[in-house]
Amino acid sequence: MFSKQIKNCNNSVQSFFFSSSQNPIFPFLHNPLPAYSYTQIQTYVDVYMKWKKDPYFDSIDSIHKSIQLKPIISLKNFFISSSSSPHDNYSIPISAVSKKGYDFDVNIKVARFLRNYPSFFEEFEGPKYNLPWFRLTQKAIELNKEEKMVYAEFEADILERLKKFILMSGSKKRLPLKVIHSLQWYLGLPEEFSRDPSDFLGDSGCFRIVEMEDGLKGLAVTESSSDGNNGKFVSVLQKNAMTERTDGDLSEKRVVGLLHELLSLFVEHSAERKKLLCLRKYLGLPQKVHKAFERHPHIFYLSLKNKTCTAVLKEAYQDKLTIEPHPLANVRKKYIALMKESDIILKNRRVNNSRPFDSTNVNVKDLDSSDDEGPEMAEASL
């Protein structure tokens, strides 16, 4: 009886593995075929790669303080463009900027934000009604001059990066201006570009404003400036993928190569991952393009610092000779260093305010501790 059950069990196992059903587990054992008849048809493998924190990439200030620096630079540019007194360090009343927080992506009171960065913005009592005014510090003005010199000296390089970015769209050779504006900070384009692209580009002959679908304005690369590659810009990784045999996932390699080239064009060779999602439609990227960063930790690092996910091109920080640095990178680092000086200034103020009352300083007026702004400044100092 027992031997009969074993025999029936063996028959069931053989039937399971070697049956002629539509989905046998080992079909090649049931009906072997020549090796050449097997063709890979899988084009997407959803492989889970465990994320591992890397303290080195999480501690690079030029990456993680770049977004914090952006509104400071925008406000600095507003001071320069709106002030009629450059001889007075571009002074403006707080009323000229207090209602424009949304324009600078500042989600707190603008006065409070300016007081958080005294290394950039200096507060003083205005000429009338004792209202607070702000002006740029001398260090901020000097860095602004250096920044303008970089834009003038490396204009061709910055425009070439913009051209490569647009050519990633393939044969269309055009991208909506709103998409370019959303990545303008990463590309290192000056604010003049967002105000009037035609005026900024001038008569370079490489670009033209075009009409796109849905009534969008776009920026296109002209035929004569596409370097004879039919409007396609191909990265080194993409070229390698094209020359390899079809036994690899070419679609995946193309996506990785494109993302590699995209980040190599950016100032910090990094970007918030969510900012890149707007490119899916225009660069022909798959719906799950964000998965490419996770599946290739040897190429990209995903930092979760500052409550956002930032994609970093590791090669740019591991072997600096392989990725050409952006002309604006050094100036940004100097701006970040100046931004960190604000922490020291505010710390010294807190220390001075905690000392016993000194009658020798009774005539010194601290505008930051005025009655109407006192609670706000106390909160900002935390």
UniProtKB/TrEMBL annotation:
Coiled coil: none annotated. GO terms for molecular function: hydrolase activity. Residues 357-382 are annotated as: Disordered. The keyword Hydrolase applies. It comes from the Eukaryota. Keywords: Hydrolase. InterPro entries: PORR_domain, PORR_fam. Signal peptide: none annotated. Residues 52-244, 248-342 form the PORR domain. This is Ubiquitin carboxyl-terminal hydrolase family protein.
